[in-house]
Amino acid sequence: HGYTAHQLFKIIRNDITQQPLVQVALWTLGRNSSLTSLYVM
User: Fold this and answer.
1) pLDDT (tens digit per residue) in 1-29
2) What's the pTM?
C-alpha cells in the first residue's frame, strides 16, 4: 500500500489537472495517513 500511495503522490505532485486521479490519490493517502508524513517533507 505504501508503494502505491507514494507513486500516486509523485504523479499528482507533478500534474493536478486530472481530477479523478487526484481524488483517488488523496483518498489513498488519507487511508494511509500514517504514511502521509513521509510526503510532506
Assistant:
1) 678 777 888 888 888 898 998 888 888 77
2) 0.56
| Cell reading at 21 | 486521479
Q: Which residues contact 39 (CB under 8 A, 6 or more apart)?
A: 6, 9, 29
Helix (H) or strand (E) holding 8: helix 2-14
Boundaries of every domain in the chain:
2-40
Helix axes 33-40, 19-31, angle to 10 degrees: 110
